[in-house]
Design a protein that fits this description.
With 120 residues, the chain is of the alpha+beta class. It has helices spanning 7-23, 59-64, 71-87, 105-115, and strands at 27-33, 38-44, 49-55, 93-96.
Length: 120
C-alpha cells in the first residue's frame, strides 16, 4: 500500500525532507499564520523539541496590538522570538516559511527576527 495517496501529500513530504536536510545542524525557525494570528517557533530537529516560541495570541501582545493579523503583529512576534532564541543561545537558524509566500506578514516577521539578532 502506498504511503502517500495523492500528489499534495508527496509534494509536502519532499519539501519537509528538503528543509530538514538544508537545516543540517542549525535550528529551524518555522512560521504559521491564520486569518487572525501569527505564530513562530525555533525548533531543534535533532532533539525534536521547541526551543523558543512566540505568537500574537500571548496576553501582553493582545493588549498592545490592534489585531494579530497584520504586519505590525508579525514584527512584534519576530522581535519577541529573536529575544527568546538569543536567551537560549541560538543565533543561527534556517527560515522555514512552509507553504507561505515570502511577502507581507511572513517577510515582516523574518526581517524583525533578523533585526533582533538571528542570522539566516
Amino acid at each position: 500500500m502506498a504511503k502517500f495517496k495523492n500528489s499534495t501529500q508527496r509534494r509536502t513530504a519532499r519539501v519537509r525532507r528538503h528543509v530538514k536536510r538544508a537545516a543540517g545542524s542549525r535550528m529551524r525557525l518555522t512560521v504559521f499564520r491564520s486569518s487572525k494570528h501569527i505564530y513562530a517557533q525555533v525548533i531543534d530537529d535533532g532533539k525534536g523539541q521547541t526551543l523558543a516560541s512566540a505568537s500574537s495570541m500571548e496576553k501582553d501582545m493582545r493588549g498592545s496590538l490592534k489585531t494579530g493579523a497584520n504586519v505590525d503583529a508579525a514584527k512584534a512576534v519576530g522581535k519577541r522570538l529573536a529575544e527568546r532564541a538569543l536567551q537560549k543561545g541560538v543565533k543561527q537558524v534556517t527560515f522555514d516559511r512552509g507553504q507561505y509566500h515570502y511577502h507581507g506578514r511572513i517577510k515582516a516577521l523574518a526581517d524583525a527576527a533578523r533585526e533582533g539578532g538571528l542570522n539566516f
